[in-house]
Amino acid sequence: MLRWSYRDARAAGERRSPQRRSLLLAGMTAATIMALSSPAAASSPSPTNASPAARPLPMVSFAPLVEKALPAVVSVLVIGETLVPAELKPGETPPAPERRPFRSGGSGVIVNSSLGLIGTNRHVVRDAVTISVRLQDGREAPAKLLGVDAGADIAVLKIDLPNLTEMPLGNSSDLRVGDFVIAIGNPFGLEGSASAGIISGLMRSDIGYDIYESFIQVDAAVNPGNSGGALVNLDGELVGITTAVGRQSGASVGIGFAIPVNMARRIGMQIYQHGRMRRGSLGLETRDISPSAATELGLPNRRGALITAISPDSPAARAGIVPGSVISTINGEPIRNNSDYMAHFGSSAVGEELELGLLVKGTPKTVKLTVTDEIGEPRTASVAKSIHGLGGLVVNEIGPRSPLYGQVQGVVVKGMEPGTPAATSGLQAGDVITGVNQLNIMSANQIADLNRADAPVERVKIMRDGIPYIVDLRR
Fold first, then answer.
1. 282-291: b or e for each residue (b if 16 or more CB lie within 10 Å)?
2. Which of 61, 185, 188, 414 could bond to 394 as cystine, CB 3.0-4.6 Å?
3. pLDDT tens-place string over residues 397-447
């Protein structure tokens, strides 16, 4: 029977692990030192006439926790081949791609010892030809890639080795800003490295890494090579998969991000069972709440996701949901903005029931909807004819029925209006646009935003028949 579940810490009562007790002792130690160093303490005689310096002070160490967790963290070694994007010019035959071999590495976490399942990031194994895994005890084995989800940057590997150690899964919904955590992985190939810190933020979205973002932000050192590794709480439980660092330098800048384990667990289960994440639809379209929309709807703030359209005969339509309603919670979890809603919905599979908390004309309402695979047409966006480079372009999002779904991030070119800049750009219907200028494209809304952008479109990254190209529009 597949085990990929968490133990609810709340159900276990208010227990304290030895590590938590050590942390409390450390706090007491700090308080004692502060008290002894105060002028009042210096002038007051000790009741026992014993020197305070002679008393042993309790010490804190994360070593027992790290020693227990380390065997479940592995090195992921990749030999691959990447295709170097070539410049695509209008009217010319596309050049043959240049294939460039590479070796890279990252981290992974054993989440099921009997099945040999390992969770990691999709970007760790991207373009891999062969994947191998090295354990902390020195054993090494080839790994099979069971599947990936590009939208959340999750991948699941399988190895066949006996006597594996799995890491127990915690409940990331219990995390609070200020909680201590430890990041364990292989930064810069330094295997079995650990760094400690606190949770700096929760539900971080709009970072620009993935389509479905609800990151845990930490100040523990997270560097290249930590990707796919473990974020561990003080009970030794996995609470996140480390995945990204601050963008300033590509190295640790005191801001790191991890995928919550609850999200990774749900997506990982789908990949194990079906080879992919089976996302569906509720039949509604959403966007952020603009200041004007908040004023028009009489909302107290701009928290939530605004429903802008309802598909006929969809779960949302059958539940009586109307445009103008605001999604404020999903399964009791607060929704801050549209990206937050997308992250929560993005880890929900076909057949799963969701409880939506709504504000309908200022009145709270709760409805239950079941995610369906009866999906309408993917969302479409177009660029005004007057826009330099891509004017007249029409794109579709990559829907769940597309073979590209979950494999690549981007939007699909649906067509170009004749006589427009897009028609002479060299783009073709079926091309997947993955980037515009320096922006990674993940949704049709980003293409629609080009209508309001100040900077001209100069470069477009695309995939055509699985081959990357760069379209230079500076002419």
1. bbbbbebbee
2. 414
3. 887 677 777 678 889 999 999 989 888 888 989 999 999 988 888 888 888
Residues 334 and 465 placed together within one structural domain of the fold: no
CA atoms of 169 and 236, how far apart (whole Å) = 9
Note whether 100 and 194 are same-domain residues: yes
| Exposure class string for 63-93: b at 16+ Cβ within 10 A, else e | eebbeebbbbbbbbbbebeeeebeebeeeee
Question: Which SS3 state, helix, strand or coil, does residue 231 take?
Answer: strand
Catalytic member of 227, 347, 382, 443:
227
CA dihedral 120, 124, 129, 132 (to 10 degrees): -50
Catalytic residue among 104, 123, 172, 252: 123
Rounded to whole angstroms, the Cα distance separating 165 from 236 reads: 13
Q: Tell me, what amino acid is at 233?
A: N
Q: Are residues 192 and 335 in the same domain?
A: no
Q: How does pLDDT run across 273-289, given as a tens digit for each residue?
A: 999 888 888 888 888 89
C-alpha of 419 from chain center: 40
> Same domain, yes or no, for 110 and 218?
yes
More confident position, 144 or 2: 144
Does 123 participate in catalysis according to the annotation? yes
What amino acid occupies position 194?
A
Taking 50 as the threshold, does the pLDDT of residue 330 lie above it? yes
The predicted pLDDT at position 29 comes to 41
User: Which is more confidently placed, 230 or 385?
Assistant: 230
Distance separating alpha carbons of residues 416 and 385, to the nearest angstrom: 10
**Digit-coded pLDDT (tens) for 29-84:** 444 434 444 444 444 444 444 455 555 656 678 999 999 999 999 999 999 999 88
Q: What share of the chain is helix, strand, coil (3-state, %, to 5)?
A: 20, 35, 45
> pTM of the full predicted structure?
0.76
Percent of the chain with pLDDT over 70: 83
Strand, helix or coil for residue 372:
strand
Catalytic residue check, 227: yes
Cβ within 8 Å of residue 371, ≥6 positions away: 279, 280, 281, 282, 315, 348, 349, 350, 351, 352, 353, 354
Q: Domain for residue 3, yes or no?
A: no
Catalytic residue among 149, 153, 210, 219: 153
| CA–CA distances in Å: residue 2 to residues 115, 141, 185, 302 | 8, 22, 25, 41
Are 191 and 53 contained in the same domain?
no
Nearest to 168 by CA among 112, 120, 119: 112
Are residue 136 and residue 273 in the same domain, yes or no? yes
Q: What CATH code is carried by the domain that includes residue 424?
A: 2.30.42.10
Encoding tokens for residue 99? 């294939």
User: Does 437 or 91 have the greater pLDDT score?
Assistant: 437
The letter for the amino acid at 263 is M
